[in-house]
Task: inverse folding
């Protein structure tokens, strides 16, 4: 896989949403989401300064150019409203890590679910990874329940987090069910 | 599952804080504090697993109360 192949995958319009890679113009949107008092409470701490977010994105864009990380923003294709984020990173052999899954509160069900599905399909189908690794805070029960629906392997648990490994096969199986339920298949 | 009370229990179980509130057929479930899109997805998955039907997000969006959801599920199952 060359970075160009991945970079040419976006922008992508799918299921009524537009997906593209994050730019520094998204800094304020990202900052507001990541500093939401309740919605982002399970994310790792982040600076609440816009200039810090801009600098983070600039460093991220270098990693993106190297093809080692992709930060995806989801936009309502009809209204152009920014909806949320997903990120694939920490590429290691045939595994990638997924995270930064954060969407505006109050959206309909499909936006955040489809965003997760699109990001993981990108990593599995375009970047050709065989498995996705990720961790979820135990206190984040809603997200924990969602991820467990895919029947991932639990590789580790500690006081705060559960660590998972999800194969492409298990992902595709449960993805199909979710897409059917949401009316996309 | 032809019993509304059973349905309410299963519906309520999809909320992460199910033990902390009361739910009945007239409850407007989106007003529950812990409601979020993932809870909605869990409810749709529960309906799929229990009733073997695909209850669409569009139809779900039109439902305000638990009774609304139950009535629609019975219609399509």
Result:
């Amino acid at each position: 896989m060359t970075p160009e192949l991945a970079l040419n995958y976006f922008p992508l319009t799918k299921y009524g949403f537009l997906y593209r890679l994050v730019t520094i113009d998204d800094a304020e949107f990202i900052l507001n989401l990541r500093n939401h008092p309740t919605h982002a409470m399970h994310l790792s701490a982040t600076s609440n300064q816009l200039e810090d977010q801009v600098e983070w994105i600039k460093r991220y864009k270098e990693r993106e150019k190297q093809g080692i990380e992709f930060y995806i923003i989801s936009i309502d294709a009809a209204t152009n409203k920014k909806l949320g984020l997903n990120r694939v990173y920490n590429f290691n052999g045939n595994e990638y890590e997924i995270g930064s899954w954060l969407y505006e509160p109050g959206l309909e069900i499909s936006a955040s679910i489809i965003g997760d599905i699109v990001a993981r399909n990108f990593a599995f189908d375009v970047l050709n990874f065989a498995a996705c690794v990720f961790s979820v805070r135990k206190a984040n029960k809603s997200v924990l329940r969602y991820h467990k629906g895919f029947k991932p392997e639990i590789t580790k648990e500690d006081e705060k987090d559960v660590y998972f490994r999800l194969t492409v096969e298990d992902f595709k199986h449960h993805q199909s069910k979710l897409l059917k339920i949401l009316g996309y298949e | 599952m032809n019993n509304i009370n059973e349905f309410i229990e299963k519906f309520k179980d999809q909320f992460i804080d199910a033990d902390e509130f009361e739910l009945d057929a007239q409850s407007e479930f989106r007003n529950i504090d812990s409601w979020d899109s993932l809870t909605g997805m869990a409810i749709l998955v529960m309906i799929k697993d229990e009733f073997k039907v695909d209850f669409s997000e569009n139809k779900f969006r039109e439902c305000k109360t638990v009774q609304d959801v139950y009535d629609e599920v019975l219609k399509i199952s």
User: Anything to note?
Assistant: The two ends of chain B are 10 Å apart (CA to CA). Residues 7 and 30 of chain B are 17 Å apart (CA to CA). The mean pLDDT of chain B is 91.
